[in-house]
Amino acid sequence: MAGYIVRRITGNLYILRMNDQRTEFFEGTWHIPEGITYNAYLLKTSEGAVLFDGWKKNYGREFLEALGQLVDIGEIKYLVTHHAEPDHSGTTPLILRENPEITVLGHPMAKTLLEKLHGFKIGKFKPVRNGEELVVGGEKLLFIHAPMLHWPETIFTYIPSIKTLLTCDAFGGYSIPRTIFDDDEEEINEYMFYVKKYLVTVIGFHRRNIPLNIEKLRKLNLDIKIIAPAHGLVWRNYPEFIVKYYEDTAKAVGRKKVTVIYASMYGAVEEAVMAAVDEAAKHGCKVKVYPFTDNHHSDWGNILTDVIDSDLLIIGGATYDTGIVPPIHAFLTIMTSRLPNTGKKVVIISSYGWGGLAAKQMKEILEDKGYKVLDIIQFQGRPTSKDKEKIRQILSQHIKYKETNKEHIEEKQH
Length: 414
Ligand code: FEO
Prior knowledge:
Elements (H helix, E strand, L loop, with lengths): L3 E7 L2 E8 L4 E2 L3 E2 L4 E10 L2 E5 L7 H9 L7 E6 L4 H4 L2 H7 L4 E4 L3 H9 L6 E3 L5 E4 L2 E7 L9 E5 L4 E5 L16 H19 L5 H12 L5 E4 L9 H12 L6 E7 L4 H15 L3 E8 L2 E2 L2 H8 L4 E5 L2 E2 L2 E2 L1 H13 L6 E8 L5 H11 L3 E9 L4 H14 L10 E3 L3
Parallel strand pairs: 6-7, 7-8, 8-9, 13-14, 15-16, 15-18, 16-23, 18-21, 21-22
Antiparallel strand pairs: 1-2, 2-5, 3-4, 5-6, 10-11, 11-12, 12-13, 16-17, 19-20
Helix pairs in contact: 5-9, 6-7, 8-12
Bound molecules: MU-OXO-diiron.
């Protein structure tokens, strides 16, 4: 779905959604062939309009055009910056240039961040405190600080008249859903992988702040009927579901899944790993397999997305020179830096030619960052049938699910 969408959400609140299919690597880092949306919102009141966030700078012309479908830019009285990251604030300098009378509302840190990130000066800025309210044209806005989701200046806005909570990055996801709302079950099922991928890649490092901020929200006892994030679907049917999904994922709750990540130069590690995959599937758990081989390299973001809700990780990689085969070494660095202290259980499978060094180094990297290595299976050259039997026994010991169902194997779905 190319271009942008302007649609009424409820009452006088409208969404302006840009479907970005041009960005290949979000934050220049995460590969997103699925695309991403930027959701800005506009609330019309009898005393002018309130704009919430914006789009990436590349889409300035389209943003003005989309806004023009709803208001004259001179009618915008406030611009609420929930978060200064340029995927939402890229159009802010343009909007303020068109209408310098707009007052920007945001966390006290937002002004400097916006000015430094975009190299301009904001004429009118009003910092908002946690719990502060503003009434404009009879509409009340309640501002809630949501620190480190995923920047320190992140805030939410609650609009009581329409029971809607605007949450910027929180409760958002990658991809370009076919629908605006969570109306279609099939769409939701497809979308949830991208919600998890977004949470893990963008907010993952700060994931402990997700349950903290959700708890803070619950204590406010707000009547929330709609959750409107700045990426992806708007939740009007299942707002509690997306909140719980974020909370569980942030807590790295396992969902009956084994994720297998391996690099295989000449097939030896792959052969051993496949014995583990087969055994895991026999025990009825979902198995996701991410290879690095001579004709396929898996995507870092997708792997992390499956790591976060796995019960067990199987990591396979040989000794390479005096260390770990490079793709696995790189992966371990990314995983342990982005998702430290998950407490995930790991089984290591490794081969070597004349000296086995990789398994020990992998164990050290993992345990140093709060992963729990349960077992190491190491062999010289190719795995023997005895090695593979040992792998099966170890897997059988560590996997608790007892249904037998091979259909649980899923490979490279995304
Ligand atoms: Fe969607 Fe942190 O920006």
